[in-house]
Amino acid sequence: EVSVGDDATCVSCDETGSFAITGHRDGSVKRWSLDNAKATKKLGFTSFPPTRGVECVKIVGDVAFAKTTDARVATFDLKKDASIKSWQLPFSSYRAKAKEANALPCRFGVTSDGKFFACGDNLDTGIVYVYDVQSAELISQLKPLRVTGVVHAVAVADHCRHVFSSYGPGVVWRYEIIPRVDDDKDGGAAINRQGFEAVVKPN
User: Fold this and answer.
1) Mean pLDDT of the chain
2) Count of CB atoms within 10 A of residue 41's CB?
3) What is the C-alpha to C-alpha distance for residues 101 and 91, in angstroms, rounded to an integer?
4) Residues 71, 101, 152, 61, CA torsion sign
5) Is 173 helix (H, G, I), strand (E, B) or coil?
6) How far is C-alpha 71 from the geometric centre of its chain's CA atoms?
């Protein structure tokens, strides 16, 4: 049993089960040893303001992902103990003004290779944003059909061909991502990331 305090909001374990990270209401992310149930380090997510809590964390390989309540996203190298990238989601200005007590969390999804990140917004538009993690580039905005609302959680298939998003109450959308191909590059094998299309299929 590990006691992480009453201000912890989210947790993620590494694939070996040897350690975990937790996000907290004060904007901090902490690393915990699961062998001795002690906090070993406070990770240096320098782009996170102390006035905003962390609402979602994930570990993918040697990289920690975290997102704050005002829609800031950052990655952190657990081996090098150094920040990698940070960016803000398009709806961050809304989340920055919203009271934390009234702002529903938006959990994000990451492919198992850590290359793609997807997250919904906190508005009623129901849009899911897909990013290239290495460049922090927004490569697609996925929009639902007929049903809109706040996106509470997102999951991404490893091949990034399917993105799942959940809306309240009880609605899940599956997006089939179809990357367009640049015919004039590499014999037509190069993917044009700016040309992502999406076919929306309700589950």
Assistant:
1) 77
2) 14
3) 17
4) positive
5) strand
6) 10
